[in-house]
Design goal:
25% of the residues lie in helices and 24% in strands. It has ten helices and 16 strands. The strands form three sheets. Strands 11-10-9-8-12-6-13-16-15 form a nine-stranded mixed sheet, with helices on both faces. Strands 2-1-3-4-5 form a five-stranded mixed sheet. Strands 7-14 form a two-stranded antiparallel sheet. Helix 3 runs parallel beside helix 4. The longest helix is centred in the middle third of the chain and has 13 residues.
Length: 340
């Protein structure tokens, strides 16, 4: 199952709206096949694992391990539970049950009805963590929300006055590269009007190879210049606004009610099958999600320098779950254990 999770992680940021799943087939203690889901619409992990077995006759005496319950419905691909039954694989070990209503125990029932020996909840906590984006999306009807910011040692995210279009860098180049890696792992990235205007970020992954996230920008009064980098053609952008404006090929304008902003945004993202969002600023936008308890993870870089005065970092009243050093920076990870 640990190997299943290693394989599943290879699909991070590439399988949306599907979960990332790993599968391993074992014959007499030896791995004879393995696979992971690489992209939505393509073969599932179990299919790739079965296909990788050279001698299919061994399947009748093998055990298949999978990090998530095999599907039992016809989507873009046939059900994996049916494939396991077809090849008469006698033993099935499952990391965690799929809470998606189309599956949710149906794959297990199908396998058991066919006479398979099914074992559940192996490394369940680790498997639930692996599928956290997928489960959050279907259970809470919203994307998995990650908050991220960088702050100085004395708790500021930017100087009070800042030259427009010139971002204020707090962290090291190593930390910046990690942030770009994170962007390839999530389906979307969001910033507020002030951050888009003052920092002029591209919100793309330029320092790491991978998928570009969908860019989300809050611009209530449509005050942002279309010359900003967030409107270039390197990725698609959605602009949430209270006004009305015609969309272009790379930029779509969505008119919403800003009096109920968070619910409207998350509802729109859910409708579009956006399973995760990383929110990178600014201070007011980040704090608003904290105040409404609408977050699942928070990742905070703390640099080595002091600023003495400036724009204060968001306030998160909880202790970090883990901390690690990244070059000259401290990276703190927070988990939201509430049910919101």
């Amino acid at each position: 199952m640990k190997r299943c999770l290693e394989l599943a992680a290879l699909g991070l940021g590439k399988t949306y709206p599907n979960p990332m799943v790993g599968s391993v087939i074992v014959y007499r203690g030896i791995i004879i096949g393995e696979g992971w889901h690489k992209k939505s619409g393509e073969a599932h992990a179990e299919v790739i694992a079965v296909d990788s077995v050279k001698d299919k006759s061994l399947l009748k005496e093998s055990t298949i391990y999978v990090s998530l319950e095999p599907c039992a419905h016809y989507g873009k691909t046939p059900p994996c539970a049916a494939l396991i039954i077809k090849h008469k694989i006698p033993n099935v070990v499952i990391g965690c049950i799929d809470t998606f209503s189309e599956v949710s125990g149906k794959g297990i029932a199908m396998l058991q009805d066919a006479g398979a020996n099914v074992k559940l909840a192996v490394l369940e906590a680790e498997c639930l963590e692996s599928h956290k984006r997928f489960f959050t999306f279907h259970q809470k009807k919203r994307p998995y929300i990650i908050l991220k910011w960088a702050q100085t040692k004395d708790g500021f995210i930017a100087p009070t006055t800042q030259q427009q279009g010139k971002p204020f860098w707090i962290t090291s180049s190593e930390s910046k590269k990690i942030v770009h890696k994170w962007r390839t792992e999530e389906a979307s990235i969001l910033v507020g009007t002030h951050t888009a205007e003052k920092d002029n970020p591209a919100l793309t992954a330029r320092l790491w190879e991978g998928e570009q996230p969908l860019r989300l920008v809050l611009d209530r009064q449509l005050r942002l210049s279309t010359d900003l980098q967030v409107f270039n053609n390197s990725a698609k952008t959605l602009v949430f606004t209270a006004e009305s404006k015609k969309s272009s090929e790379s930029t779509e304008y969505i008119t919403i009610d800003f009096s109920n902003l968070h619910e409207r945004i998350l509802k729109e993202l859910h409708k579009r099958n956006i399973h995760s969002v990383i929110i990178e600023g600014g201070r007011e936008t980040l704090q608003s999600f904290i105040d409404m308890n609408l977050w699942d993870e928070t990742r905070v870089f703390t640099g080595k320098e002091n600023l003495e005065e400036g724009i204060s970092a968001p306030v998160l009243i909880t202790k970090p779950n883990t901390e690690e050093s990244i070059s000259t920076d401290l990276l703190s990870w927070y988990k939201n254990d509430s049910k919101n």
